[in-house]
Amino acid sequence: MPIEIKELHIKATIDNGNGGSRDNSRDKELKKMKAEIVKECVEEVFEILKEKEER
After folding, report:
1. Does residue 17 contact residue 23 with C-beta atoms inside 8 Å?
2. What is the pTM assigned to this prediction?
3. What is the pLDDT of residues 12-51, one digit of tens each?
4. Helices (H), strands (E): how many in the chain?
5. How far out from the chain centre does Cα 28 lie?
6. CA quadruple 21, 23, 26, 27: dihedral positive or negative?
7. What angle do CA 4, 6, 13 make, to 5 degrees?
């Protein structure tokens, strides 16, 4: 039996980085992780393109 959602409430709290050096290290770690994800995605796209060329 399907369920119908009529309303969805989302609550979020955003911190503008007033926490000091702890936030800076977290920001650096996030940037590093994002760069790794982008690198992996680009490598995967190149692999797919390479496979299509070989066909």
Report:
1. yes
2. 0.53
3. 887 766 655 566 788 889 999 999 999 999 999 999 998 8
4. 1, 0
5. 14
6. negative
7. 120
Task: Give the Cα separation of 12 and 41 in Å (integer).
Answer: 29
Q: Which residues contact 40 (CB under 8 A, 6 or more apart)?
A: none
Contacts by 26-29 with C-beta closer than 8 Å and gap 24+? none
- Token digits of residue 7: 């309303």
Nearest to 18 by CA among 10, 9, 27: 27
Q: 30, 36 in Cβ contact below 8 A?
A: no
Q: Hunting for tokens 């982008």 — which residue is that?
A: 38
Structure tokens at 5: 């959602």
DSSP string for 37-54: HHHHHHHHHHHHHHHHHH
